[in-house]
Amino acid sequence: MTDQELQKQQQELQKQRDHEADLQRLRGFRPIDDTFMRCIYQDNIPLAEMTLRIITGINDLVLTKGETQKDFKRLLGSRSICLDYHGVDTEGRQYDLEVQKADSGARPERARYHSAAMDIEALNANQLFEELPETYTIFVTENDIYGFGDGIYPIERVIVTHEQLFNDRAHILYVNGAYRGNDPLGDLMHDFCCNDPDDMKNEMLAEASRYYKENPKGVEIMCKAMEEMREESYQKGIEQNRLESIKNIMEGLKYTAQQAMELLKIPADDQPKYLAKL
């Protein structure tokens, strides 16, 4: 067997091991896991409507469009964000639904940035500020990060000296994933943290979860999503190593960024990406 054939065989074995690991990981996935959440909500407007109605209390909420992994980057040079789920309803209200297992991923500053990003995307040149849509930035957290036992923590701007609402129509909601009250929200949070569709209380969420865990087509979609995540992580690792090499060469050899990238033979098309990060 040639070295090339041996390398190919090893790659195939690694691919098979990765696939088996993905299947094992899939069994443990819950709706609060962002990879799984993005799949079960993709192209599933009824599921998103049901979820948002329970969380916001807007019982007649009807979505006109919804999208998972919505990229927002309108201002040149600004930090981009990818929303887990972005929806717009018939009244023009916009929703950002995020799931966060780590408490650190749900910091107030992040909610503020997500809310601002929706505003920037919503208003075109020459539009009046009054035309900004009402927005709901929603973070479903696995833990009760505020520790009061509430199911939902509504965040609003207020006129502090008079305890009066500012009424800018930008709402932030923190949803306690540990909440288990005897109500629709308690059932929803139970299901968000459940990895077995048969144990879920909400049939719509159970059906969506079951499809991606048990249906061959759904399983294939999930496995592909995990493969893409691995490749993305690999590429990010390459980029980070290159960036460190550029910095080391610039510092050690007193090269310009351009000279360092030429020394590393970084393609011209990729160079602006690294320049922006230096």
Topology of helices and strands:
Blueprint: H1 3-28, H2 34-41, H3 45-56, E1 63-72, E2 81-89, E3 94-100, H4 108-122, E4 135-141, E5 152-155, E6 158-159, E7 164-165, E8 170-176, H5 184-192, H6 203-214, H7 216-253, H8 257-263, H9 271-277
Parallel strand pairs: 3-4, 4-8
Antiparallel strand pairs: 1-2, 2-3, 5-8, 6-7
Helix pairs in contact: 1-7, 2-6, 6-7, 7-8
Shape: globular
* Main sheet makeup: 6 strands, mixed
How would you state the average pLDDT, rounded?
A: 90
Number of domains: 2
Question: So what's the oligomer here?
Answer: single chain
| Strand arrangement, major sheet | 1-2-3-4-8-5
Cα(first) to Cα(last) distance is 45 Å
Tell me the radius of gyration.
23 Å
Structural class: alpha/beta
The amount of beta strand, in percent, is 15-25%
How many DSSP-defined strands? Answer: 8
Q: Share of helix among residues? A: 40-55%
Poorly predicted spans:
none
Would you list the SSEs in sequence order as H and E? Answer: HHHEEEHEEEEEHHHHH
How many helices? The count is: 9
Explain this structure to me?
- The chain is of the alpha/beta class.
- It folds into two domains: 31-214, no CATH class; 233-277, no CATH class.
- It has helices at residues 3-28, 34-41, 45-56, 108-122, 184-192, 203-214, 216-253, 257-263, 271-277, and strands at 63-72, 81-89, 94-100, 135-141, 152-155, 158-159, 164-165, 170-176.
- The strands form two sheets. It has a six-stranded mixed sheet with strand order 1-2-3-4-8-5, sandwiched between helices. Strands 6-7 form a two-stranded antiparallel ribbon.
- β1 (63-72) and β2 (81-89) form a beta hairpin.
- The protein is globular.
- The relative contact order is 0.11.
- The model has no long low-confidence stretch (mean pLDDT 90).
